[in-house]
Target: Uracil DNA glycosylase superfamily protein
Amino acid sequence: MLNTKFQLFLPAIQTLRPQKTLTKQDLLTDRFLIEKAEGLSMYYAPHNEYINNKAIIVMVGITPGWNQMKTAFEQLLKSLDSYDNTERILKEVKIAASFSGTIRSNLIHMLDECGIPEAIHVSSSASLFNENRQLLHTTAIIKYPVFYQGKNYTGHQPGIHQSSLLTSYAYEVFPEELGQIQQSALIIPLGKTVESVFHKLLKEGKLSQHAYLFGFPHPSGANGHRKKQLQQQKESLISTVKAWAGQ
Model:
């Protein structure tokens, strides 16, 4: 695991009430603020602290959104009541919050379409979020939730390269995390914004030797073109998966 901010924010976390549904008024406050710059606000959330360095599938989004942040904190409060092992607590939080909600069901369907189950010998990609969770690592190029003018940051306004805050996380913090993955994994950048960061990192020699599934659409419900994009890229995606799996 990387050095985390968990201990730094733990006193503020312990003031939250585990019995209530958490709101933006609870979490999007100065107590959890990491930095503000250029209309952007980055807040702490605990679910990208745990790193499964033995994963063979790594899914990478842009940055956690509000729903993931909320789920992560609610699970954290439950786990703090149940365990005293920090790594186990952060692992439970990761499992609960990573690509939670409708994005997860979209993602599972898309992974199935690309032949992931056949490549890793499971019945469905859904198992990566359940009984085969040890095979999966999920993360984001900007590991903590970012909001632009109070709304989920989408990667466009401002562009990552236009913000020193975003650039430092995407091009310095993120490669350090990915470098901890021990074996030749299949890395899946979700969408064009994430993919563009990967191309730059690869060009600069900042990434380890893994296989990269380029062309995979972002699974968000807000991406209305994802099904069409997937069909257009499907043959290439299946080919990359098979080559990685040695099929």
